[in-house]
Amino acid sequence: MALLGVQLVVTLLTISIMHKVNERFSFGKWLLCRTGLVYYLHPTDFELRKLAGIPQPKPKAKPKEGEKKRGKNKRKWEEPVEEKTFNIPRNLDFQLETAKVLPRDVLPLKFFTEFIWLVDYSVFVMIVYIITEIYYALMPKASQEVNLSMIWCLLLVGFALKSLFSVTGLYFRSTEAGAERSMVLVGGSFFFVLALGLLLIDESNLEIGLDAAYSAFNQSASVFLEHQALDSEGPASKLILKLCFAVWCAITGALFVFPGLRVSRMHLDALRYCSERIVLKAFIYINLVSPFLLSLLWVRPLARHYFCVRIYGGMEAPLMTDHSFESMRLWLCIVFSLVRIISAPACFQAYLNLAQEKIQDLKKEAGKISNVELQRKVFMIFYYLCVVGLQFFAPIVLCIGFTLMNKTTGGYGWFGLHHFNLDECNSQPPVTISNLLPTDEGSLSSAREQWLVAISSFRQIFSYEVFRGVFGFANWWIQFLSFFTVGCGLAYQSYFENV
């Protein structure tokens, strides 16, 4: 309990610091307002009238001197009704002005609060997790207590999914987004069928670990029920569990459809705008390739076989052990995620430049357009900047969250072997219902013993193998979704550029 108290103190201090720091500094606001982003200003009605040759509205008439307003028949000096909407040629020649993104400009943006919260909270989750890892390294016995950083990571994953649900819900609440709704539904159905096919692959080729997780859970649950003297037919069948995973894959796949298309467009535009900046261009290329490379790390014949099994000429052993390979896989997931965050300002600027591209495409069309519609085309690009930011950051946050949870709950280590003895930590006596019942002592020591017994019972059922399978599969699926959706977006963009 003392170890858990230390974690509680660290958590409370972090929450207090998070509240104080957010008042002075926000990493989300810094990304939007301190990285040199510029947005385009739409032309005013006065400028459009002047360029189109449309007469300006007459000024308000002034009353004559000495004339008074009396009784019911008083003269009303009203301003003439100004025509707010007027049509202008689509090929009207004008240039959009630019302005730097300032803190006051981003406050009215859609989903601004959600974007700032998700980005800032992910930063504090990383801080809490690093402090917890250092604490566990110094005090190995702390592994017997509840790891509160996992609760932070679980909340982070929940916030990221909730943000994607909110953004995807825009297509279902709008009456003009029928095509987008259909694409989301079709994407969810497609990923459901694809997940069913992938879950049938032998795990000797695709090491997602669900079969081992099911076997470990089935065995530990049966032993636990046997010690309780309870009759049960056992956990659900493997087919039902895989069907549940396929449903989860379909839901996340539907949420990733438009983020993948958006990210692919931003990366292509960013490559075009930063062609002279070699370092940034290299980061963007890494972002495009990294989900594909990470998803291949779970394919045993293409990854583990060459690193952990095959012995090359002049060597007496493989390049690395299984533990080192698993640690390398965790490191690559974190490093590539951070590289994607570094390139975020360039991708955001590429998105904001769409306003200028829309106006250039508009000039190639014939006919007329209303001033309100033209201004809306320019303004809506900046208005949905935070929506695009959520589509960019939420997949990265999910990858980081599942990687951290996979490492800690799966018993992995950052540098090969885990820093504490798993056999020693798992050597707990069988837990029965009588052990969980409260005692008459009511002392602090008895409460601590009951708490440890409850944790031990939980770990007997949900062992390291179970968490390795669940979070390992979730991590791989997020990487595969990022690669697949971005790849479809690149193919889509390439096709329409060549048409």
From TrEMBL:
CC terms in the record's Gene Ontology section: membrane
Membrane topology: Multi-pass membrane protein
Domain of life from the UniProt record: Eukaryota
Location within or outside the cell: Membrane
Primary location class: membrane
Record-annotated membrane-spanning stretches: 115-138, 150-172, 184-201, 239-258, 278-299, 330-352, 381-405, 466-492
Pfam families listed in its UniProt record: Tmemb_161AB
Family matches, as InterPro entries: Transmembrane_161A/B (IPR019395)
Signal peptide stretch: 1-23
The entry's keywords: Glycoprotein, Membrane, Signal, Transmembrane, Transmembrane helix
Region called Disordered, residue ranges: 54-80
Assigned protein family: Belongs to the TMEM161 family.
Protein name: EOG090X04CK
Species per Swiss-Prot/TrEMBL record: Megafenestra aurita
Lineage of source species: Eukaryota, Metazoa, Ecdysozoa, Arthropoda, Crustacea
